[in-house]
């Protein structure tokens, strides 16, 4: 099936199998390797992207469901070499170690701060319930989001 | 001022934050075939036949079975002490011994076809009796290796009790701790790719912690010289002890040679949950004896360790448990022993802590049980028994290099507000409401670089006056590109930004050990420091030659990044000037040095205080505070070290409260996806309260110990003790881990009945 989708501002018309998941469409058809796959049960959130501005797990969306939509992946968050304020906050607060879950956490955090610009620690932790990290113990991720919120990200 | 000890932001972050991590799965490898493994659905069975005809009728699909694989079975290295006769075929031949064992290999042009074809490989099994429980395995009624004659794969320490061990004790208390089986769960599942060059030389891209060791292992299995194998470990998304050479990586490389095409494999999470080794799985019984004042006189630790279906490293880890059995306490009489048994489960290997958490979990439960028996505060019983003089040799032969256990406990108690917490606990008990407070302590010591390994470092000054540091250590999240660059920068005076750390490619780095057992900085970091020092010696010689002076008169001023005549700063060269001139003179190669640093183990230590709220009506547990003092000697980068502690504590809490890899009696896993396995999220955990403490080790020039596993080792017993402490007044003396609602509720019912 033909899928027409705008990814990181660029429009694509690409053939996709009906059973293909959005994450593999992004990774394989569009060669956007920044979105990682950490599980096969929609549990870990490593593949989180923005679909029409809202965070989704791209392993839980079929590519054909994104037809006519806008997708933002980690590569499109801050084009031009600068870091997005959330990315910058993750850097400054040491909110990443191996980096594998990081794109998903960053995208989920961007979405959270759009919905709730000044979240409490508890709200941050609940909002990130769908993203898993084995390295950081989440402490610095929470701090980074708090810091990003203060900068008005 | 030295850069060391500063909270320097990581060099590696930007690429990960932009989604530019170079994980193996992201490698473009034109024309690569995809591998899909068909894995056993039965825990123990004889393979009658494998029908791959339907799968092979799919276009460009090839199926291989054990009979096709001409690689010798895996045999554990002798130091693991695994019983003779136990070996692991890369692909099961006649018998499968656990759910997840590879029974066939599907090769296809793309992964989707491979997944479809794997569904069409029909394996006809004759089920065999299954043994999952370690106590059942010990009876030897169901044997995994009948030719060996027993399931016992290894033993440690005296196998007969010393009946006089507790003579003279006024109080003797016993209990059990099951350090349950865990899945390591690095967020990046494994991925491997391999291709053979026109000259027959292999390049293998591995998601591993030890590229050089893996090169040796691959070469040995495939009958090649190590030089014929190049291993590249690009960015690796976590390892936690589990990512070292395993059957899958060997098979992918073997296939690339056999088929003459590039080959790749990436595991799914559900595959990883049974494909990657598991950790822990020790069933421990402790007995502790003291006088009436609580001075411990004797301690016995017996462990029955689950080694899984193919005993290997898991059969050795109880050795580390026994070595560390007495923890931070001066105990005159000690008896530590273990037996490891094979079961029809995923093989056990290293997972963050690897044998040491188990020791801490047992002795710290024992100290609390003794405190409860004597009605002495848990902090006080620990104080009475701490080791106070260093170096200290334990009864099991560990030589603790340095420590201040009481100092760590004092810091932790003060940060926690221990007396106020106890007052709040009393208040809640008197009120008798359902939400009771529990306060748990642990004071621990662990061993890093436990078998005294060596690491390689090489420093080279570049023509522009920067430096390249090549290390045989490896980072799969630990931040070596930052920490190691700091170490070289401090010695050379070359700005941190101008030092590039190279790792993970066996063609770029001559030798290496890799990263496991919390030893990167204490061996790799020290090797980098000493290689840097040697480069400075060489540089002084060249400067002396240029200035017609004695090298003894040439000094390096790190603050100015300049070598000059002592007392005469104007007479000398900045690194840029020296490198440029040396290059022009053909002497740049002299500005290079290698160092191999071999070190004895070091013994990081600390104290944790956990505060939990337990609902005595439902059994639900909430960890509301966790204070951690983790002393790993001198810290190079406190930001990175704290990150290690944070993650380590989370892993330790996960064992105490959430995770267990479970099987039913048929050996079928019931937690083999992330939907079933209770990997805690941010919503399940609090913020961590870390308290700095640095007691340098005298064992190396940097004063550093290891930090990667400390948080895990300290956290689990503190949280476990806190849950039991919350319920002590209700008669609860034991709660199984994970101390989740179900296990706590069960313990409450037992105490009430």
Tags for this model:
heterodimer; A: about 150 residues; alpha+beta; Ubiquitin-like (UB roll); DNA polymerase, domain 1; five-stranded mixed sheet; 5 helices; 5 strands; globular; B: about 750 residues; Aldehyde Oxidoreductase, domain 3; Aldehyde Oxidoreductase, domain 4; seven-stranded mixed sheet
- Termini distance of chain B? 65 Å
The proportion of residues forming helix of chain B, as a percent range, comes to 25-40%
Q: Per CATH, which architecture of the largest domain in chain B?
A: 2-Layer Sandwich
> What's the pLDDT, averaged over the residues of chain B?
97
Cα radius of gyration of chain B in angstroms: 27 Å
Tell me the β content of chain A: 15-25%
Widest beta sheet: strand line-up of chain B: 3-5-1-12-9-10-11
Distance between the termini of chain A: 37 Å
Quote the average pLDDT of chain A.
96
CATH class division of the largest domain in chain A: Alpha Beta
Count of distinct structural domains of chain B: 4
**Mind telling me the CATH superfamily name of the largest domain in chain B?**
Aldehyde oxidase/xanthine dehydrogenase, molybdopterin binding domain
Q: What structural class should be given to the helix and strand makeup of chain B?
A: alpha+beta
Listing every helix as H and every strand as E from the N terminus to the C terminus, the arrangement of chain A reads EEHEEEHHHH
Taken as a percent bin, the fraction of beta residues of chain B is 15-25%
**What's the total helix number of chain A?**
5
């Amino acid at each position: 099936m033909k899928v027409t989708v705008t990814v990181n501002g660029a429009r694509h018309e690409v053939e996709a199998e009906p059973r293909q998941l959005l994450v593999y469409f992004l990774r394989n058809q569009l060669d956007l390797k920044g979105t990682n796959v950490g599980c096969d049960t929609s549990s870990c959130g490593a593949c989180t992207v923005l679909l029409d501005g809202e965070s989704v797990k791209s392993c839980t969306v079929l590519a054909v469901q994104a037809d006519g939509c806008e997708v933002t992946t980690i590569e499109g968050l801050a084009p031009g070499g600068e870091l997005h304020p959330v990315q910058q906050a993750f850097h400054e607060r040491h909110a990443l170690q191996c980096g594998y879950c990081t794109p998903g956490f960053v995208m989920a955090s961007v979405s959270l701060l759009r919905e709730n610009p000044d979240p409490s620690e508890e709200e941050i932790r609940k909002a990130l319930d769908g993203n898993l990290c084995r390295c950081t113990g989440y402490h610095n991720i929470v701090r980074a989001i708090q810091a990003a919120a203060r900068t008005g990200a | 001022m030295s850069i060391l000890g500063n909270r320097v932001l990581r060099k590696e972050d930007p690429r990960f934050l932009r989604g530019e991590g170079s994980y193996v799965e992201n490698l473009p490898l034109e024309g690569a075939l995809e591998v899909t493994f068909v894995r056993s659905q039965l825990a123990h069975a004889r393979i009658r036949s494998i029908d791959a005809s339907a799968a092979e009728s799919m276009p460009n699909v090839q199926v291989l079975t054990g009979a096709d694989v001409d690689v010798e079975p895996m045999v554990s290295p002798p130091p693991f002490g695994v019983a003779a006769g136990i070996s692991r075929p890369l692909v099961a031949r006649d018998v499968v011994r656990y759910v997840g064992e590879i029974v066939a290999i599907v090769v296809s042009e793309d992964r989707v076809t491979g997944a479809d074809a794997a569904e069409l490989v029909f394996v006809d099994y004759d089920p065999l009796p299954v043994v999952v429980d370690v106590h059942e395995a010990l009876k030897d009624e169901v044997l995994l290796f009948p030719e060996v004659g027993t399931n016992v794969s290894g033993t440690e320490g005296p196998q007969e009790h010393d009946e006089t061990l507790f003579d003279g004790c006024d109080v003797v208390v016993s209990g059990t701790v099951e350090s349950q089986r865990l899945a390591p769960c690095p967020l990046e599942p494994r991925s491997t790719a391999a291709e053979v060059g026109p000259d027959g030389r292999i390049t293998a891209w591995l998601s591993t912690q030890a590229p050089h060791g893996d090169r040796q292992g691959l070469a040995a299995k495939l009958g090649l010289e190590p030089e014929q194998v190049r291993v590249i470990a690009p960015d690796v998304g976590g390892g936690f002890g589990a990512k070292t050479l395993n059957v899958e990586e060997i098979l992918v490389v073997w296939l690339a040679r056999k088929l003459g095409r590039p080959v790749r494999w990436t595991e799914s999470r559900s595959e990883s949950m049974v494909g990657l080794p598991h950790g822990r799985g020790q069933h421990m019984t402790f007995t502790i004896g003291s006088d009436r004042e609580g001075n411990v006189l004797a301690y016995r630790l017996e462990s029955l360790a689950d080694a899984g279906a193919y005993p290997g490293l898991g059969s050795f880890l109880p050795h580390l448990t026994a070595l560390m059995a007495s923890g931070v306490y001066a105990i005159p009489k000690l008896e530590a022993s273990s037996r490891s048994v094979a079961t029809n489960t995923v093989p056990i290997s290293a997972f963050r802590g690897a044998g040491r958490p188990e020791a801490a979990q047992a002795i710290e439960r024992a100290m609390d049980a003794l405190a409860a028996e004597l009605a002495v505060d848990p902090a006080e019983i620990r104080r009475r028994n701490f080791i106070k003089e260093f170096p200290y040799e334990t009864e099991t032969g560990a030589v603790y290099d340095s420590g201040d256990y009481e100092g760590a406990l004092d810091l932790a108690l003060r940060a926690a507000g221990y007396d106020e917490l106890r007052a709040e606990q009393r208040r809640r008990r008197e009120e008798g409401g359902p939400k009771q407070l529990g306060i748990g302590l642990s004071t621990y010591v662990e061993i890093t670089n436990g078998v005294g390994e060596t690491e390689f470092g090489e420093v080279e000054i570049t023509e522009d006056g920067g430096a390249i540091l090549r290390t045989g250590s490896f980072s799969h999240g630990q931040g070596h590109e930052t920490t190691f660059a700091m170490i070289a920068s401090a010695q050379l005076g070359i700005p941190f930004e101008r030092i590039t750390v190279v790792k993970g490619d066996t063609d770029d780095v001559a030798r290496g050990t890799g990263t496991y057992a919390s030893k990167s900085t204490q061996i790799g970091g020290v090797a980098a420091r000493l290689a840097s020092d040697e480069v400075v010696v060489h540089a002084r010689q060249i400067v002396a030659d240029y200035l017609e002076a004695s090298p003894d008169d040439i000094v390096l001023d790190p603050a100015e990044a300049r070598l000059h005549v002592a007392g005469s700063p104007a007479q000398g060269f900045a690194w840029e000037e020296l490198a440029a001139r040396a290059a022009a003179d053909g002497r740049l190669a002299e500005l290079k040095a290698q160092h191999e640093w071999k070190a004895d183990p070091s013994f990081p230590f600390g104290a944790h205080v956990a505060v939990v709220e337990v609902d005595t009506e439902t059994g639900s547990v909430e960890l509301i505070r966790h204070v951690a003092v983790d002393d790993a000697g001198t810290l190079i980068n406190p930001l990175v070290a704290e990150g290690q502690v944070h993650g380590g504590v989370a892993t330790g809490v996960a064992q105490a409260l959430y995770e267990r890899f479970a099987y039913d009696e048929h050996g079928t896993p019931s937690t083999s996806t992330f939907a079933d396995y209770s990997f805690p999220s941010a919503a399940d955990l609090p913020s961590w309260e870390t308290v700095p403490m640095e007691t340098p080790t005298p064992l190396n020039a940097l004063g550093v110990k290891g930090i990667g596993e400390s948080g895990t080792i300290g956290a689990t017993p503190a949280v476990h003790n806190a849950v039991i402490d919350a319920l002590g007044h209700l008669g609860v003396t034991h709660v199984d881990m994970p101390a989740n609602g179900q296990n706590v509720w069960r313990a409450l019912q037992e105490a009430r009945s």
